[in-house]
Design a protein that fits this description.
Elements lengths: L7 H8 L28 H16 L3 H13 L4 H10 L2 H7 L6 H9 L3 E3 L2 E2 L12 E4 L3 H11 L11 E4 L4 E4 L14 H9 L3
Antiparallel strand pairs: 1-2, 1-3, 3-5, 4-5
Helix pairs in contact: 2-8, 3-4, 4-8, 5-6
Length: 202
């Protein structure tokens, strides 16, 4: 199962801010574990592993899912790192999160799975559904769905709506305008390290 149910702040203390995992901030800033505060230098492999883990935990993916995205990104023309981030950012659960309809990607996945979200006026219950430029997203026209989303909208996880999306709070409708640009990815990550990590496995 891709869903991580462990201690989220322990993960962010190790990997840094992961807005898709949690918006909470840890009181302690040292790395978790017995030797977390010793400042021990990471090996090159450990650095690349942690960058890969950032993607996994932020987007809520299993290792197999991320590996499949990596294979697809390598097969497409263009910079592999940028393509990988675009593939992840265009997932329906992530789009719902970036529109502010859910506080985390895990919460967005639940909204999608419970059939609260429509794409092009049709219910889509698959979180990994890939949105395309021109797709419209809306909240199902029921009282329960709208109340749930409106409660989430009171405390958005991210302050700014990325340029490739637009959203109308009154109608609870959003639209995908284009593919996301690298500068608008809300995750501090070096995707080249992720490519290097997987270069041994592919």
């Amino acid at each position: 199962m891709a869903r991580y149910t462990g201690a989220k702040l322990r993960i962010t203390r190790r990997l840094g801010d992961l807005p898709g995992l949690t918006s909470k901030k840890a009181v302690r800033t040292t790395r978790p574990g017995q030797h977390g505060s010793t400042g021990k230098k990471l090996t090159q492999y450990a650095i690349r592993l942690e960058e890969k883990q950032k993607l996994r935990f932020n987007y809520g993916l299993s290792e197999k899912q991320l590996l499949n995205y990596m294979k697809e990104a390598r097969s497409l023309k263009g910079a592999t790192g940028n393509i990988l981030l675009q593939l992840l950012e265009m997932r329906l659960d992530n789009i719902v999160f970036r529109l502010g309809l859910a506080p985390t990607i895990a919460a967005a996945r639940q909204l999608v799975s419970h059939k609260h979200i429509q794409v092009n006026d049709g219910i889509v219950s698959i979180p990994s559904f890939r949105c395309k430029p021109g797709d419209t997203l809306s909240v199902k026209n029921t009282k329960a769905s709208k109340e749930l989303v409106e409660a989430f909208l009171q405390t958005p996880a991210l302050a700014n709506l990325p340029q490739h999306l637009e959203f109308d709070k009154k109608t609870l409708k959003g639209k995908v305008l284009s593919l996301i640009e690298r500068d608008w990815v809300a995750l501090n990550i070096n995707e080249l390290y992720v490519i290097e990590y997987y270069s041994r496995k592919l």
